[in-house]
Amino acid sequence: MANTILTVNEIAKEAVMRLNNNLVMAGLVHTDFADEFSNKGDTVTIRKPATFTANDFTDSISVQGINESSVDVKLDTISDVSVEVTSKEMSLNIADFGTQVLDGAMLALAEKIDYKLTSLYQDIPYYNGTAGTTPNALSNIAQVGKVLNANKCPTAMRRMVMDEEAQASLVVLDAIANAEKSGSTDALRNANMGRILGFDTFMDQNIRSHTKGTLAASSGTLAIASASAGATSVTIAATACSGTLKKGDIITIADVEGQYVVTADKTAASNSITVDIYPALKSAVSAKAVTIVGSHVASLGFHKNAFALVTRPMALPMGGADGYIATFNGLPVRVTMGYSMTSKVNTISFDILYGTKTLTPELAARMIG
């Protein structure tokens, strides 16, 4: 009896389920899926989750409109894994094919998506911890919660993703070890450490490390001479200074409330550097020294609506290639099979089109280490 050859439909349906099982961050953030086909570089408009204000009731209610706003997200990434296959692999049953081919391919895609989402730490100015010191106490988690509380972040749907070093230091604490035993055992979330101090906690191997810019003063002190309240751009100078500030650098200003993040790379010239910051200055600045937070690992505590993952399906290729788009939990994966006469090999390509976006920086904070 001739072997049954797997179809692209079977492979796609199995692939998207295995991809979903490997994702960490994608299941923790706001997601936006739609059926219309898109191409890399397209910009789509998504709705931000509605927000409301709780009012004290007196004699009558205060009716609020649905405060729903929108934001543009660029679909700037196609993550692809292409695999050379033989008739031997194609004649396997779908379970064996999944083990031999799909597991590795979907893990690679999942890590790529995860990496893009964790890179959004660069938009977040709020933090707690000490650069270069791995979090090792419950107070590290509690202080991140305090930062979110100060920003009026809702207490529901709070998540924390931490790097492997922080997880190794924290998971051995009795309180966390016990929390893990009583937490979720869902295989989909096998990185879950349980619910700790208001956070659903996860270990993520794709947490990013931030290397701060090289800006330094060789004479004098780095300071802002003058800036108005509400300014979103400041000039930092010293008697003699040089170097860079990088997107994601966090600065604090003496005697000025708040933490501020640099939003674009800049290089000093003529002993000064002008950078864009977020948020806007809370008060006017006059001759105030600036401190730059050191290089650090950027674990994240956040509300679900802090970040978004936006995906759209791509059209199937024209011509002789065989393709299929499978969707699971709104996540579309395109699978294409083809044969190259030049190299005389069969190839299966798995790809997904997506964009990531920080929706509300105030709903997230770095737990630096």
Unreliable spans are 182-191
Question: Mind summarizing the main beta sheet?
Answer: 7 strands, mixed
Please state the CA-atom Rg, rounded to the nearest Å: 24 Å
Multimerization state: single chain
Instruction: Find the count of extended strands (DSSP E, 2+ residues).
Output: 25
Number of helices: 6
Which percent range fits the helix content? 10-25%
Shape descriptor = elongated
Proportion of residues in extended strands: 35-45%
- The first-to-last residue Cα distance is 60 Å
Overall pLDDT level: 87
- Based on helices, strands and strand pairing, what is the structural class? alpha+beta
List the helices and strands and how they pair.
Elements: H1 8-22, E1 30-33, E2 43-47, E3 70-74, E4 77-85, H2 87-90, H3 94-118, E5 127-129, H4 138-150, E6 158-162, H5 164-170, H6 174-182, E7 192-196, E8 199-203, E9 209-210, E10 216-219, E11 223-227, E12 233-237, E13 240-242, E14 244-245, E15 250-253, E16 260-262, E17 266-267, E18 272-278, E19 285-292, E20 296-303, E21 307-312, E22 322-328, E23 331-340, E24 345-358, E25 364-368
Parallel strand pairs: 1-21, 5-25, 6-8
Antiparallel strand pairs: 2-3, 4-24, 6-20, 7-8, 9-20, 10-13, 11-12, 11-19, 12-18, 14-17, 15-16, 15-19, 16-18, 20-25, 21-24, 22-23, 23-24
Helix pairs in contact: 1-3
How does this model look, in words?
By secondary structure, the chain is of the alpha+beta class. It is 20% helix and 37% strand. The protein is built from six helices and 25 strands. Helix 1 crosses helix 3. The longest helix has 25 residues. It is elongated. 37% of the residues are buried.
